[in-house]
Amino acid sequence: MEFHLDQRSGLPVYVQLVQQVKEALRLGLLDVGDQLPTVREVVAGLAINPNTVAKAYRELEHEGLVTATPGRGTFVAETLVSSSVRHHEELRRTLLAWLIEARRMGLDEESILALISSTVREELDRRVA
Amino acid sequence: MTVPLRTEALGKRSRSRWALRDCTLAVGEAEIVGVAGPNGAGKSTLLGLAVGLLAATEGSVRVAGRDPRHDPAALEEVGYVAQDAPLYRSFSVGELLELGRRTNRRWDGGLALELLGGLSPRTPVVDLTPGERAQLALALALAKRPAVLLLDEPFARLDPLAGRHFLQVLMEGAAETGSTVVLATRVVADIERVCDRIVLLGEGRVRLDAPVEELLSTHRLLTGARRPLGRIRGVEEIVRERSSGRQLTLLVRTNGLPIDASWSVDEIGLEDLLLAYMAPEQLQAPTPPEPSRLRWHG
Question: How far apart are CA B145 and CA B112, in angstroms?
Answer without folding.
Answer: 10
